[in-house]
Write a structure and sequence with these properties.
Layout lengths: L1 H26 L6 H6 L3 H21 L10 H13 L3 E2 L9 H20 L5 E6 L6 H21 L7 E7 L10 H7 L1 E6 L2
Parallel strand pairs: 2-3
Antiparallel strand pairs: 1-4, 2-4
Length: 198
């Protein structure tokens, strides 16, 4: 009987030992399981970074100023012509191309507007038109209008306006703003006028 007990004890011990080794073997695999769990979060930050970058791109595009086109839209040209039409012409004395005090004041007032236009549209040129009243020959008035346009060009360049963006044109007596035959009307026609080059 002692032997049966010993045999039964040995079997129980063997069974207990087998059960413990299975428990140990079963306990051993869980440590490798955390390794895949730790590896899985690593891609998540990369995904989060990609999500952060996607919203920044539209914001950066909205903040960055669009490059200005070299050519004006029809609306911009119409606005420019309206601005130039409101500017005061430089008026001249009869048969003279010297800039008077009132013409100097008018041109000084216009310089800031001209500078803004030319800096916003670096490829745009402004035309300085020289005009004369109806008295005198066509040829003489064309030459006089040219001298008046040159006088205004020199004045504007002395105020910092780039010569490369100015063009000169003499119309002589061909484009009067007034057709009455009196000094007041003739004075209005003896002028230099700024327009936008086409």
């Amino acid at each position: 009987m002692k032997q049966i007990m010993l045999s039964a004890g040995a079997i129980a011990l063997l069974a207990a030992s087998t059960a413990c080794s299975k428990k140990i073997a079963a306990a051993a695999p869980p440590p490798p399981a955390p390794v895949p769990v730790q590896a899985a979060p690593a891609p998540a930050p990369a995904k989060a970074t990609a999500v952060k970058q996607a919203p920044q791109t539209p914001v950066q595009q909205a903040v960055a100023p669009a490059p200005r086109s070299n050519t004006m839209t029809p609306q911009e040209r119409a606005t420019l012509n309206q601005i130039l039409a409101r500017m005061e012409d430089a008026l001249f004395d009869y048969d003279k191309s010297t800039i008077r005090a009132d013409a100097s004041t008018a041109l000084k007032d216009d310089v800031a507007v001209i500078r803004d236009i030319l800096s916003n549209y670096p490829n745009q040129k402004l035309v300085i038109e020289g005009h004369a009243d109806e008295r005198g020959s066509q040829e003489y008035n064309l030459a006089l209008g040219d001298r008046r346009a040159h006088a205004v060009e020199e004045f504007l360049t002395s105020m910092g306006i780039p010569t490369s963006q100015l063009t000169l044109m003499s119309y002589g007596k061909e484009r009067p703003v007034c057709t009455d035959e009196n000094e007041q009307c003739w004075q209005r026609n003896r002028r230099a006028h700024l327009t936008a080059a086409p």
